[in-house]
Amino acid sequence: MTSREPTNYFLYFAWITAMIATLGSLYFSEVKGFVPCEMCWYQRILMYPLALILGIAAYHNDSRIKKYVLPLSIIGAVTSLYHYSLQKLPSLVTASPCSEGVPCNMQYINWFGFVTIPFLALVAFCLISVFLILARKGE
């Protein structure tokens, strides 16, 4: 009987978080009809591959993937934080990279006065980063 490395559940938690974020963004755009702005597309570009890559890594219990995925989630968190700042700090809107289409400071949702779509993405990217850092401790 061969001994297997213990399952790294933090990889599964990171994958589940990425899947919820991916499906949530698809729900907002395809079901609710919210047109994504330019900053939303950048966040999607960073989140969607995480759902696939983390799923494969969790299935194979491959914690080596963290060194490739963690930078994507950190860059995604910074992008989400900037986008959230555009929504909540009107003085930043003039510096917005959005030039056509839906403005990046538009808030389709505003639950409890602070939860917007970029805030949800920020939480997801931060959770993924935390789960990956915790998974590192399990090595």
Characterise the protein shown here.
The protein has 139 residues and is an all-alpha fold. The chain has a single domain (9-91, 103-137), classed as Bromodomain-like (Up-down Bundle), CATH 1.20.1550. The chain contains 4 helices and no strands. It has helices spanning 9-31, 38-59, 66-88, 117-137. It is elongated, with a radius of gyration of 17 Å. The two termini are 22 Å apart.
CATH architectural grouping: Up-down Bundle
Shape: elongated
Give the low-confidence spans. Answer: none
As a whole number of angstroms, the C-alpha radius of gyration is: 17 Å
Count up the domains.
1
Q: What portion of residues is helical?
A: 55-70%
Mean pLDDT: 87
Strand portion: under 5%
CATH domain topology: Bromodomain-like
Strand count, sense and barrel status of the largest sheet are:
none
Q: What's this, in brief?
A:
InterPro entries: DiS_bond_form_DsbB/BdbC, Disulphide_bond_form_BdbC, DsbB-like_sf. The protein is an all-alpha fold. Helix content is 64%, strand content 0%.
Helix and strand topology:
Blueprint (H helix, E strand, L loop, with lengths): L8 H23 L6 H22 L6 H23 L28 H21 L2
